[in-house]
Structures are given as C-alpha cells and as structure tokens.
Amino acid sequence: xxxxxxxxVTPIAALMLAVTPASVQAQQGPPGPPPAGGQIQLPPGxxxxxxxxxxxxxxxxxxxxxxxxxxPPGPGLIPPRPPLPADAVMPTADxxxxxxxxxxxxxxxxxxxxxxxxAPAPYTMAGAKVLARRVNSLKVxxxxxxxxxxxxxxxxxxxxxxxxxxxxxxxxxxxEVLFEEYHGRWYISxxxxxxxxxxxxQYMGRSIGHWDGGTLVVETSDFKQAIWLDVDxxxxxxxxxxxQRMRKVSDGGQMPFLEVVTTIVDPTYYTAPWTIVRxxxxxxHQAVFAEYNCExxxxxPNVSADAGLVPEPRD
Length: 315
Description:
Blueprint: E1 25-26, H1 62-68, E2 100-104, H2 125-139, H3 156-161, E3 166-170, E4 174-179, E5 185-189, E6 206-212, E7 215-221, E8 227-228, E9 235-236, E10 241-250, E11 257-265, E12 274-282, H4 294-298, H5 301-307
C-alpha cells in the first residue's frame, strides 16, 4: 500500500524536481509552447494569453491586499518522470477521445494566487478572510481539517491538480474520471435528459458536459459542502460553480498533454469569475493505480500523531 500524508499538514517531501514541458501544438485552437516552469503563453485572447484590452497594472482591493500579505505558498515541485518509451501507447487522433491516463506535468500549485493572465484572484472580503484563516493555521502548525483529511472526496479541482495519475473513460452518454489518490471518481453526464443524475448533492458536485468542437465543456455545481480548490485552501462555497474546458493537445505525437482551463464562479468568495489553466501529461505506464486506503492511513499512529488537524471555525 502507498502511504500518503494529508496535504494540509506539511509540504510534500516526496515532490522532487520541477518539470519543463516540451513545445506543443493544439489539435484545436491556436498553437503555443509552454516554456520553462509550465506557464502557457499563447496569442492574445487565446487559452493562457492576456485578453484583448487587459490592464497591465491593477490597483489591489482591500481584500486582495489581505491575500497579498499572506506568507507565500510552498514551492511547487514534482517527482521526475521517465520519458515515454518509443513503443508507448499514444492517444487517438480523435480530439473528442480523451480516454487514457494523465498526470499533472506542472509544478504543484499549493495556492492559486493569480488567474491565467497573471491578475490577482478577485477575492471578496469574505473569501480573503477564509483563505487568510487557513493559511495562518498552517503557519502556526494547526492546519484545519478538510475533506481529504477525513476521507471525503475533495472536489474535481483538487483531485486533478495533485501529482497522482487519473484515467478517463467515456462513451456517448458520459465521461468518467477515476483518480488514484483517494480513489476518487468524477462523473460527467453528456446526456442529462437520457441518463438520470443523482438527486442528492455530491461531494464532487453535479457535472454536465457538452462538446464545443474538440473541447469538452463541463459545468460542475451543486456541491454537498464547500470545498478547497487547492492544498492551502483557496475557497469555493457550496453554491459555487466550476466551468472546465478540457482539450487534448499534441506536439505531433511525442509529448501529448491534456489542457484544462477552469473558470471559478462564486459570488460568495469572489467579485467576478476568474480562470486558471493546468496541463496534464500523457502517462499510459501509470494506468495501474497504486493501492490506497485512506481509512487505514487515518488510523496509523505514525501519521495521526503528527497531523495536528483541528476543526475549522464556521463563518
């Protein structure tokens, strides 16, 4: 069994080296290479580039000043990964076929501080106070209990961003994403009229998707409880919504990856929608997941004795 520690406790010692993705060309949309550090830079208005007419300098709001004054997040590192062998299975050429195994190929971001254009996240005062409370709890060594610490699904954003693989399977009616970490499951309905969705709210939310050319657009809402979008606790209220645009990208077959552009919509914690982007490398050799037992880990005195997790105060 693979031993893992709650991500809210300490920086992950197992994360070693940052990855520099190769130059790429999208199957759909404008081309552009992600340079060193994994930052995607594409033409203005494209995925990852500054929108037309964007301001180059911004005056921080009082809420953004609170966030800017917080201790910086830990360094984003990931373990080294071997190159794909010459005979590795590759994704299909069909842009609407996302099936296969993928893993985060960028440095892990402990805290999403800026949008994909480099602007500070547009926090409300309520959102800034929640994040400040969580970050300061880490600073004093008493991190708050979150969903992952008690073996509950932490939400699709957190699950995807971790440095552990996930596999996508799909048919004409639905897409299902299976995660190694927490053995999570993210169900996306492509036919909400023909396929009955759960009537009760889910920890992973209720996700409905449709195809926009070669991009899968997924709207996730109706969360059972408020979730953390990342390790440090960037907040999303239970009434918040995630709009994810997922597309398969390739440099001609050598280093394919999956791009996920996520727009966060949550008037409780943010004054306006804001968008982040992540990429995930093709990883067929990780299709067989490592064993993971969250409940056994929580009962391990070598872990729980050092965790120091405390309940988070209610707003």
